Amino acid sequence: MPQIPQPGPTNQYNLVLTRPFASRIPETRIEIIGEQNRGNAQIKMTRRSGDNLEIMEILEGDLKPKVQPSPHRLHTDTDTLCSDDLDELFDYMDYLSGLPSSPDEDIYDLDRRLSFQGPSVWDNGGDETTGELDDEARDLFDQAIQFVEDLGRSRARRPTAI
User: Fold this and answer.
1) Percent of the chain with pLDDT over 90
2) Distance of alpha carbon 36 from alpha carbon 55, whole angstroms
């Protein structure tokens, strides 16, 4: 029986992307953990290779808010925090939470499994849900996958001891 993710405290979130979809030991796993009200998160990317996926590389990094300069150049003390990546991540979580999922089939045909829990809970490989799977839903899922993979490549750069 598939494990059903349980929502955590409302300000905490956890997002996991694995490839391939139906593997017990994924070749790639990207995990993002944070608290919404803090504006930053930790990202960890695990890649496995070799005949039996015995070679493992773990990279970590942070998603921190970017400092956006004040529009008034004279007032440099009024710089504001702008967490574009995290805002976009939360937007994807909101959009995806209404899309269909199936525990037995990769209905998006991307060989990726994306699950998250936080303010909303969703897993494209979780319990079957109803909803229309149209081209727009497929495109949205693909964009979310690309975004999370880009975050993994660009932000998880610090090697971690295994």
Assistant:
1) 50
2) 34
